[in-house]
Amino acid sequence: MLLNKRVYTVSELTRNIRTTLEKDFGAVWVEGEVANFVSHQSGHMYFSIRDEGSVLSSVLFRRVNASLKFEIKNGMKVLCFGKISVYDKRGQYQLIVEGIEPKGAGALQVAFEQLKEKLAKEGLFDKERKRPIPYLPQRVGIVTSPTGAAIRDILNVAGRRFSNLEIIIAPTKVQGEGAKEEIKEAIELLNTLRSVEVIVLTRGGGSLEDLWPFNEETVARAIRDSEIPIMSAIGHEIDWTISDFVSDFRAATPSAAAELLIPKKEDLVSNLARFSERMKLALSSKVEFLNETLARLAQSYILREPLNMIAQHEQEIDDILEEIMFKGKNMLKLKEEPFKSLAGKLEVLNPLGILNRGYSVTMRERDKKIIKSSSELKRKEIIRTKLAKGEVLSRVEDV
Question: Which CATH number fits domain 10-104: 2.40.50.140, 3.90.226.10, 3.40.630.30, 3.40.50.740?
Answer without folding.
Answer: 2.40.50.140
